[in-house]
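Researcher: Here's a chain I'd like modeled. Treat it as a single chain, no partners, no ligands.
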Amino acid sequence: MSGTMMQLGALAALAAMAGAAQGAVTVTLGASAPTYNDRALTFDEPGTPTGPVSANTWLGSHDVVIDAGDGQPIVDDFGPVFGSWAGTGNSFFGNFGVFMTFAINDVTGLSMQVWDPSGVPSPFGGGMGVFVFNDGVQVADGFFTPAWGGVGDTWLNVSAMPGESFDEVRVLGFGFGPTTIADNLSWDVVPAPSARALLGVSGLLGLRRRAR
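Model: Modeled as a single isolated chain. Structure tokens:
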């Protein structure tokens, strides 16, 4: 799907999404955000490719697929292009947004820095939308004035209530020619069923030992 089609689809879906279940997952944009412990991705890891990259680049190492809205993601140091405010070292660049799918484990919390030149939200366009899904169903959204040019809050935080999770996050601007930069991601994952089973067995063994 082209980036234009993705953006038009997101715009067309806004009214339908307004009735989606809210509260189990929250989306905020601020001057800071928690650092989560299970995964971290800065795009400066040893061996990280630069220039045009595959959306599956981090599937093996981080269990996440990260794509651009136009299907042509780029990783590079954008400081010389936009200014020193644009990420720390390498960042991820997506025309028409950044689309993240957590392919293996659901996620309970995600933080990242984002920049987009789309400006203030209005009925006529502009602003940045964040859409959160679980198993194809939207569970949260947020609309913000994104940081750009060294001005504004950069830290996006998506947090699930206990017992809740999500597996997809879409970040896209609604200005003219939106381009989203993302950097310094971290997230926590839901333990795999096998891990849960092992924890349960461990707990039962502990109870049996104490009962003897």
